[in-house]
Structures are given as C-alpha cells and as structure tokens.
Amino acid sequence: MFLSIIIPLAPDDSADDLIKQLQRLGYDPIVVSEETRAKSLNRGVMLANGEYLIFLHADTKLDDSSLEKLPGILEGNTEIMYHFKLKFDRSGLVYFNSLAANLRCYLFSIPYGDQGFCISKKLFIEVGGFSENMAYGEDMHFVLKLKHLGKSIRQLPFSITTSARKYHKKGWFKVTLMHQWRFWKILYGFSFGKGKQR
C-alpha cells in the first residue's frame, strides 16, 4: 500500500462523510480514538502499512481530484512534509483566519493539523512522532521538530475544507485569541529548549 490515511477521533467526533468519501476513492482509512489526539495519531501510524501518511481531522472535506493527484506529488519525496491550503466551510470572520493561516504557512512554514499533514512514514519515525505529553498543540510542536531538524515543509496546490463549528459554538474572538496564545506559548517553550523533547 502506497498511502495510509489516519483520522483521529474524539468521543464527540464523527468522520462518516470523510470515511465514505475516502472509501469511494479506494482508500481504507485508519480511524483511531485514544486518550489524546497525539496518542491516536501515533497509534494510527503503528497500524499503517503505507509508505506515506496523511493525517486528517474528522471534520475535513477534500476535493476528490486533489486526493487523486496527491500520490504523484508525494512519491519519492521522503524528506518533505506537505500540507494543504486551508478553507473553512462557512463564511464570515473565519475567512480571515484562513487567510492568516495560509499566510503563516507561506512566510514561516508552520501549518496546523487542520491543514492536513502528508509525510513519509520514514520521516515521521525519524522525527519521533507526535509528543504525547502535550495537552494541546502536538501538531505545531511536530512541525517545529521538523524545522529544527532542517526538514522541508511545503504547501500543496490544493485546498482542504475544515469545519468552522468551534468558532460558531465558542465564539470567534475567544477561539482566535486562544489559538494565538497557544501558538506563542508553544513557540516560546520550543525556542528555549522546553519543547524539543520527543
């Protein structure tokens, strides 16, 4: 198998639509629910047989054509991690969040997990997987480990659509502020050696 797709699930998550889409395209996704997202992701990698891995959130929507083209981009690029451009499934203020996320990735190559990570299993293991001792931000921490090792992170020419329900449920300002606070806290901790552990 060339490509394994891993979907971590929280107790209240449902990936039915995504699973049906992937199965229609000939994929058999690995759906895992452990104590934390990091443990779920790492467990999924242990179960994966593919040479390359895609990590998707349960509320993700993909364009069929982009998924069909993806293997041709990944093949042979075992030292690069790719990610998608981000879109949200609703309009409004979240549009500016997607703009900011894509600009952050363009300028600094720091994607989050809701942008989908595409990486070889070899490189994932070399980096040490997702840090399971973190309460949040395991995706950003993983990216910082990649950058610390001098690995390349590139944006794919495709978009991924993520649910904006948490912004509508908890409030746009509150969620945006929380993400910013966590971003700087993780970056500070990593930069000063508190987060480089595997």
Describe what this molecule looks like in 3D.
The protein has 198 residues and is an alpha/beta fold. The chain has one domain (3-191): Spore Coat Polysaccharide Biosynthesis Protein SpsA, Chain A. Helices cover 45% and strands 20% of the residues. It has helices at 16-24, 37-47, 64-74, 94-108, 121-127, 138-148, 165-170, 172-191; strands at residues 3-8, 30-32, 52-55, 60-62, 80-88, 117-120, 152-162. Strands 2-1-3-6-5-7-4 form a seven-stranded mixed beta sheet, with helices on both faces. The longest helix is centred in the last third of the chain and has 20 residues, at 172-191. It is globular. The model has no long low-confidence stretch (mean pLDDT 91).
List strands and helices in order, with pairings.
Layout: E1 3-8, H1 16-24, E2 30-32, H2 37-47, E3 52-55, E4 60-62, H3 64-74, E5 80-88, H4 94-108, E6 117-120, H5 121-127, H6 138-148, E7 152-162, H7 165-170, H8 172-191
Parallel strand pairs: 1-2, 1-3, 5-7
Antiparallel strand pairs: 3-6, 4-7, 5-6
- Any guess at the CATH architecture? Alpha-Beta Complex
Tally of DSSP β-strands? 7
Q: Give me the CATH fold name.
A: Spore Coat Polysaccharide Biosynthesis Protein SpsA, Chain A
Low-confidence stretches: none
Structural domains: how many? 1
Q: State mean pLDDT (0 to 100 scale).
A: 91
